[in-house]
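User: Structure please.
Assistant: Input sequence and predicted structure:
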Amino acid sequence: MSAAGDREQGNDETRESSHLRHIRNALIGLLLIAITAAAVIGKEFLVPVAFAFFIALTFRPFIRRMSKRGMPAWVTTTGIALALAVLLLVIAAVFGSAMTDWINRWPEVQRTFLQRNASLLEWFKHILDVSRTIAAPATEGGTATTPEVVVRQPVLPTIANFIATYPVNVTITLSSALVIALFLMASGDLFYEKLIRVMPRLDDKKNALRIVFDVERDVSSYLLTITAINAGLGAIVGVSFWLIGMPMPHFWAFLVFALNFIPYLGPIAGVIISGFVSIMVFSNWGQAVLAPAVYMTIIGIETQIVTPAVLSRRMSINSVAILIALAFWGWAWGIAGIIMAVPFLVTLRVFCSHLPVLNPVGEFLSGQGDNAGEASANEKKKKNPS
């Protein structure tokens, strides 16, 4: 009788824990839905805040290092902010002058292109006419079908409006992010002090600080390393384009630098843009193909040799996770979300490496030869050497 009662009590406890697990999973699902909705709805506010967060994380280790050497935090922060502001102004000036020059030259370039490739365009027109003839519906009983009237909206005004407004929006967003980052960097370790006060137990305080410092270290290392690689890549592409005669090589240097912050999609966009411009500018096809070919060669060397050699295993991220993050953040925040997708993944990976319940997620996010479980085990060994 007692054994049967114990068995029944055990079954009740199992059912109760199963119900609690289902409730917890449902609450986690609702939380994720709420976070997604908040990210989409609050895009205009959250994008500059997120940019500011990553800028502050990038430079916090440097500011702390300079503070230990006697340099006040506000002096280092002001210097960083001024340097970033000058860089932003230079990039805006280069892109602005390049866009203005290209818009002014567009009618002449278009006219020259049409004259040079008249025979090729005529051939394309002939192919198009033949395909329309083949695809045309057959007439029955001598009654011709009513021709379909298609009203086409002008494309150039839309493109011109986008070119005119988008750089302004980007400048406003980055300027707002820079101001917010200035206050975040100037606040020093105030956030960490508040975090320590909130945590109830000593172990929680230590674990929270460990997570925060690891996020700071990994995000800072990743962004500084990628920025240095992109700067070198932009300089090499700019010099290469200058040697082959591409117009505005300084513009291409800055464009490649910016596009390469977007994994996979950025280099593809760069190849397409360079190919389009070279076709419009150069008179022969051999020279027109040279620019995108040079671009693809340099990008291939960077992605296959330089970046894997420079980035440590700790900062490697699963390619599938990157594609999923690009799709999600691109949908939620557009180009800004695509740029910040990988830093978000690096941050999430550090959290998962410190929380045993999330170690499987960390293992999925990890690149080859590294996983969150190993990182968590290493942390435990550090705390318990025996």
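The chain is about 85% helix and 0% strand.
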